[in-house]
TrEMBL record:
It is found in: Golgi apparatus, Golgi stack membrane. Its main location: Golgi. It is an enzyme of class 4 (lyase). GO terms for molecular function: NAD+ binding; UDP-glucuronate decarboxylase activity. Catalyzes the NAD-dependent decarboxylation of UDP-glucuronic acid to UDP-xylose. Necessary for the biosynthesis of the core tetrasaccharide in glycosaminoglycan biosynthesis. Residues 115-407 form the NAD(P)-binding domain. The lineage of its organism: Eukaryota, Viridiplantae, Streptophyta, Embryophyta, Tracheophyta. It comes from Glycine soja. It is a single-pass type II membrane protein. It comes from the Eukaryota. Pathway: Nucleotide-sugar biosynthesis; UDP-alpha-D-xylose biosynthesis; UDP-alpha-D-xylose from UDP-alpha-D-glucuronate: step 1/1. One of its GO terms (cellular component) is Golgi cisterna membrane. This is UDP-glucuronate decarboxylase. Its EC number is 4.1.1.35.
Length: 428
């Protein structure tokens, strides 16, 4: 005991023992467990801290990819956790989208698509195409100008849902794409309650962008040629910034849509939302409101009812008219394509109001009279899209000219006005 302990003492303090005597190898104090626990507590603590930090950083998060909070400059529509439905799978959707993968074993069928304003004129035709393609479609509409009749042929289809909802209120849905059309489009309707129109364009668009951000959906805004105002450039290219009266009677619509475009681009740049912007030029076709004041529907309804065609001003102002199936094709190509836009979607064929009246007379009633009325305020003098960008980047251009599309609309209007037999109204 004494030699070994003296050996220990010796070896601990002398570098070279002076004799050949055997000394058992001394036990190193730092290999003893008790010693480690006693003396290295600080190191253990530090090691534990580092491991815990690594664990929490590397663990894949199952919470939404977007932080919730009052300081978020790109608000999402759902800030209070209590408002989440208990059976909601939205968190799953967020994680699927945030990593861009579908979990193994889950077969991708169609897309889940929201169409706001889907019970309206353009929206209902878009819904028809999406359903025909095999997608699941949720129509969100407050029926201000839209009608259940426009979509009721899909009732009973498990791929179709209809929600009566005003887009100025937040909405939670799990979807892959959002076509945002909700907004009255004709002057009669958007001037009816201008404050509501601007609220729909601003708050409604904000809500839908918030939804897109939360669930990682791609968002398409249907903007309008009205953002060019009374244009000083002709035809209008997407690079033209417009000539808009910010305080006129049409401003609720024109400026509302301009703001909606701004919000869309800011959510894209600032929050990484995938967006698309379409600037739609005058579109006509079956299911337009009969008396919405838009020139094609006006003329057709008047000619069918044997009333004079009302021409505002001298009738020399020009418009271009696009058949609805061409527009729907353009919207879908835009949504599926790689380019944000904005894209002009319209038919470059340009007609004066008097030329349009003549085509309507030829198609419906050559005896129809023309009646002149004073022009409305801020009515643009010229409108014609330059569609080179859409041709080049989307491979899109309209196929249906006015003389081919108008009869298809006329048979739908005739059926709705007189209850005649319907004859192939929706496609051209
Ligand atoms: N048709 C055109 O010539 C044209 C031209 C330029 C732009 N656009 C745009 O295309 C979109 C569709 O136009 P449309 O011609 O089908 O018009 P529309 O009036 O037939 O359809 C609009 C739909 O939106 C719904 N809606 C309106 N406000 C809403 C709200 N607050 N919440 C929920 N739903 C609401 C209406 O009930 C209607 O079903 C609009 O955004 C419009 O600005 C259309």
């Amino acid at each position: 005991m004494s030699s070994s302990s003296s050996g220990l003492i010796f070896r601990g303090h002398e570098a070279h023992p002076m004799d050949d005597a055997y000394y058992p190898k001394p036990q190193k104090p730092w290999l003893s467990f008790g010693y480690l626990l006693r003396e290295q507590r600080l190191h253990f603590l530090l090691l534990g801290f580092v491991l815990a930090t690594l664990f929490f950083f590397l663990l894949p998060s199952s919470s939404p990819s977007q932080p919730l909070g009052a300081h978020d400059p790109f608000p999402t529509p759902y800030l209070e956790p209590t408002r989440w439905p208990t059976n909601s799978r939205s968190y799953d959707v967020v994680s699927v989208h945030s990593v861009g993968k579908i979990p193994l074993g889950i077969k991708r069928k169609g897309l889940r698509i929201v169409v706001t304003g889907g019970a309206g004129f353009v929206g209902s035709h878009l819904v028809d195409r999406l359903i025909a393609r095999g997608d699941s479609v949720i129509v969100v509409d407050n029926f201000f100008t839209g009608m259940k009749e426009n979509v009721m042929h899909h009732f009973g289809n498990p791929n179709f849902e209809l929600i009566r909802h005003d887009v100025v209120e937040p909405l939670l849905l799990e979807v892959d794409q959002i076509y945002h059309l909700a907004c009255p489009a004709s002057p009669v309707h958007y001037k009816f309650n201008p404050v509501k129109t601007i609220k729909t364009n601003v708050v409604g668009t904000l809500n839908m962008l918030g939804l897109a951000k939360r669930v990682g959906a791609r968002f398409l805004l249907t903007s309008t040629s009205e953002i060019y105002g009374d244009p000083l450039e002709h035809p209008q290219k997407e690079t033209y910034w417009g000539n808009v009266n910010p305080i006129g009677v049409r401003s609720c619509y024109d400026e509302g849509k301009r703001t909606a475009e701004t919000l869309t681009m800011d959510y894209h740049r600032g929050a990484g939302v995938e967006v698309r912007i379409a600037r739609i030029f005058n579109t006509y076709g079956p299911r337009m409101c009969l008396d919405d004041g838009r020139v094609v529907s006006n003329f057709v309804a008047q000619a069918l009812r044997k009333e004079p065609l009302t021409v505002y001003g001298d009738g020399k102002q020009t418009r271009s008219f696009q058949y609805v199936s061409d527009l729907v094709e353009g919207l879908m190509r835009l949504m599926e394509g790689e380019h944000v836009g904005p894209f002009n979607l319209g038919n470059p064929g340009e007609f004066t109001m008097l030329e349009l009246a003549k085509v309507v007379q030829e198609t419906i009633d050559p005896e129809a009279k023309i009646e002149y009325r004073p022009n409305t305020e801020d009515d643009p003098h010229k409108r014609k899209p330059d569609i080179s960008r859409a041709k080049e980047q989307l491979g899109w251009e309209p196929k249906v000219d006015l003389r081919k599309g108008l009869p298809l609309m006329v048979s739908d209007f005739r059926q709705r006005i007189f209850g005649d037999q319907k004859e192939g109204t929706t496609s051209a």
